[in-house]
Amino acid sequence: MTLSPANEALAAEIIGWFPRPRSALIPLLHLAQAQDGYLTDEAMRRVGELVGATPAEVKGTAGFYEMFRFEPVGTYLVNVCTNISCLLWGGEELLEHACESLDVEVGGTTDDGMFTVEEAECVAACTEAPCLQVNYRYRGRVSPADFDRLIEDLRAGRTSIAGHGVLAQVRQSIPADRLAGVVPPEQAREAPVWLARNEAGASG
Amino acid sequence: MGAPSATGGYLAPLPDRSAGAGYLQHAPGYVLNDGPKLITGRFVHEDSFTLERSVATGGYEGLRAALEMTPAAVHDEVRAATLLGRGGAGFPAGVKWGFLPPGKRPYYLVVNGDESEPGTYKDRLLMERDPHQLIEGCLIACYALGLQQCFLYVRGEMALAQERIAAALNDAYEAGYVGREICGSDFSVDIVMAWGAGAYIVGEETALIESLEGRRGMPRLKPPYFPAAVGLYGQPTIVNNVETLSNLPWLMVNGSEAYKGHGSESSPGTRMFAVSGHLRRPGVYEVEHGVTTFRELIYGDNFCRGIRDGNELKMFIPGGGSAPWFFEDHLDLPLEARPVGAAGSMLGSGAIVIMDDTTDAVRAAWRVVKFFARESCGKCTPCREGTTWLEQILRRILDGEGRPSDIDLLLDIGDNISPGPYPVAAHDGAEAVPFPPRQTTICPLGPSAVAPVVSTIRRFRHEYEAKITRRDPIPIEVVPVGAAR
Fold first, then answer.
1. Nearest chain A Cα to B280, which residue?
2. Chain B (196-255) residues lying within 8 Å, Cβ to Cβ, of chain A
């Protein structure tokens, strides 16, 4: 679907924080992915209209980034790291176990649409090897038994992890009277006022 | 997949995670020891990320101190402290700031929080555990340089860091620390969080700027070499690492003299190192910069306490996945850029990966190369093609399909990405080749993929040879087109 009214309002706010609308492209694609779980053609077209990009430019940009999906994935995207630090503590075996116990190939989704398993590159939790992320939330030093318990908990709904697409559960929001003011570069040629303190040489 | 790895895997018990080992349950990976704490001082508090805790423990005092000084004096203080960039290149921040060309306003500050170098994680902890310290650092930099817009770019996969920074920015705006007329002064700046969507190469500063402009994150052609000349929207732009900026509040409160009281003369202050791999106590440590040695960090009681199960060290990566590998002869080098560079590697992003004598060198090298092959953006042919071929040849060697000519082939592909002698550690009478490598590519990603290959072939050629079982195919005679038969 296209963007919901609530997300349209959020999109307008986010665009207002950047000197050029196109800079809001990736944040708005995340907004669309949080709404639908993946990027629909309608949502991408709307985001393109909002930031002044053609549908081809939007898809061409989104396709560069691994996190954007053009087809539905499982409610929980399980990214198992196998990069060097995790390899040393059994990351590949953990990935193999994950695939076996969920009966999927790497990149596959379970029949019930609950889980997609992916092989991930380093997610910056290297001392916690082997580690994984569920919808980009960390679990460290995961043994096969830990993995099975995690899956059981997720199936039973014992989790605070939101569905795929949702990242931060707090959004930035700037009160209008606190915003210093965002303008395109052409309208910001003057040196800011506080630099006059350098000439004055005195403390402010 | 298939055959079990020769790297220990699950057969080895995982390291001790009990609270007594120095780990904090609320900050997994960080180890609390009695070392100096210039930037991790608040980590001990469970609520270190809140404005209340930050302000109660000296938060925003560095900003107030800066506002008492002229902007130029703040810049001088950072220059005097020789604060080295913590992102990988180790360039002095005060000098970088000086590259902004006069009269070409506006200037922008872009914070590089796209931490994704294999083995590295300290920026993530700084963003998750102390976002206000980072915000304060951004404010100090913007005040010193006269910047009115700051973009804080967080890696896409770091949902918690995004959440903590968004919440911290909301509180800081509300409390008057960010935005219009900060702390009632004439200083105003907006800080906006942007976040990525999964691409290692966006950590390269010009690729990050492309991404921030809403495009594919591909590095820009050089020159210009520094975004300080041409950056975001074609304007002069300072790109600083999260850890670099997180040092500024302490520096402003305590001054450059006190800052230089830590670390070595050429590398002052402290630095965070993520030390992972086959250790008894892997962890992220804040250590004295430039004076602590690899040996102390790996074997010291205050740090990692040695290799697991009493095993021997086989090799280690001193500075993230892009760094050539080191061996036991390098343990006594200090954690300082110059000697590490001269010895044939780099300190890079503060990531040290330890591999014990159960590790299969070819397999470990293959995994790092596979990363670069997957993350190559595809802009430069030597990198796009070369990393893929390196990965496939290493894979076939591991699968028992390797040919005797493969070792030379690997080195030849490496030479096409990075011509000439490649940085490598001294071994067996052969001298070290100092860092950095030369490159036929726009950015260092391609040359980085050569590091594990050259490092392991030089030291463990016999392991490659032992895996190579097939003979070379019989060469086919090529008849030139149109030649008489």
1. A127
2. 196-200, 211-218, 233-235
For chain B, how many structural domains are there in total? 3
Is A109 in contact with B143 (CB distance < 8 Å)? no
Closest Cα in chain A to B209: A23
Number of domains chain A contains:
2
Residues A49 and A80 occupy one common structural domain:
no
Residues B226 and B311 in one domain: no
Q: Is residue A163 part of a domain?
A: no
> Measuring CA to CA, how many Å separate B219 from each of A22, B125, B377?
18, 26, 9
- Check pLDDT > 90 for residue B247: yes
The model's pLDDT over A89-138, given as tens digits with 9 standing for 90+, comes to 999 999 999 999 999 999 999 999 999 999 999 999 999 999 999 999 99
Shared-domain flag, residues B229 and B181:
yes
* CA B49/CA B27 separation, integer angstroms: 11
Taking an 8 Å cut-off on Cβ atoms, the answer to whether B180 and A179 are in contact is: yes
Where residue A107 sits, what CATH number does that domain have?
3.40.30.10
Q: Left (φ > 0), alpha (ψ -120 to 50) or beta: where does B147 sit?
A: beta
Owner of token pair 């300290």: B122
CATH of the domain at B329: 3.10.20.600
B105 in contact with chain A, both atoms CB, cutoff 8 A: yes
Closest CA to B132 of B69, B58, B71: B58
Range from B13-27, B139-153, B328-342, B437-451 carrying the lowest mean pLDDT:
B13-27
Of A60, A90, A95, the CB nearest to B10: A90
What digits encode the pLDDT tens for the residues B254-312? 999 999 999 999 999 999 999 999 999 999 999 999 999 999 999 999 999 999 988 99
Cβ neighbours of B367 in A, within 8 Å: 82-84, 87
Do A107 and A63 lie in one domain? The reply is no
B4 touches chain A (CB under 8 A): yes
| ipTM of the complex as predicted | 0.97
Distance in Å, alpha carbon of B212 to nearest chain A alpha carbon: 5
Q: What is the pLDDT of residues A30-54, one digit of tens each?
A: 999 999 999 999 999 999 999 999 9
Q: Is residue B7's pLDDT more than 80? A: no
Q: Which domain holds residue B149?
A: 38-260
Alpha carbons B228 and B238: distance in angstroms, whole number = 5
Instruction: Print the domain residue range for A119.
Output: 76-155
CA–CA separation, A25 and B212 (whole Å): 9
pTM for the model: 0.95
